[in-house]
Design a protein that fits this description.
The chain is an alpha+beta fold. The chain has five helices and eight strands; from the N terminus they run H-E-E-H-E-E-E-E-H-E-E-H-H. Helix 1 (12-45) packs antiparallel against helix 5 (140-150).
Length: 152
């Protein structure tokens, strides 16, 4: 956090530069914490029991319960859940930026979030099973609290 700095006569430029650097460092730490918080919240949303249909896992005697439309996707193998990441904090146009979301080639990530047609000939419709947008909205207050702690 920014600390009090003793300013010598006429050394305002150095003092302002030091405050700016400390504020930037604090902002970076805050964004990292926000990124990890959002990533963990999305992973948690992709965990647990669902209320959709029961299916048999092909080639096994095991069954799993799918998600119902409007619920976060159920986990069968965990590829989507394991693909949720928070990027490194980067400098963009003089500011700081972090990205949180699906960072892999999971082909069904977008169709689960937004719904739409899929399969051969795009004839099978899958209702949306949101897991990103609603998590961001649900965590807005916590994200604001984290950022206020680092950037008062």
């Amino acid at each position: 956090m920014i600390r009090d700095v003793a300013v010598e006569d006429g050394d305002w430029t150095a003092w302002v530069a030091e405050i700016q650097e400390e504020a930037r460092a604090d902002a970076r730490v805050g964004l990292i914490e926000v990124g990890m918080h959002l990533r963990n919240a999305i992973v948690a949303k992709l965990s647990g029991q669902r209320t959709g249909r029961r299916y048999r896992v092909p080639g096994t005697s095991r069954t799993y319960q799918a998600s119902a439309p409007g619920e976060a996707p159920a986990v069968l193998f965990g590829q989507l859940r394991n693909s949720i990441t928070a990027s490194e904090v980067e400098e963009v146009d003089g500011g700081l930026e972090i990205e949180v979301g699906v960072r892999s080639a999971v082909p069904y990530a977008r169709i689960l979030e937004f719904g739409g047609f899929t399969g051969r000939g795009k004839t099978t419709y899958i209702a949306q099973r949101p897991y990103l947008r609603n998590t961001f909205e649900e965590e807005r207050g916590r994200v604001t609290d984290i950022l206020r702690r680092y950037m008062p």
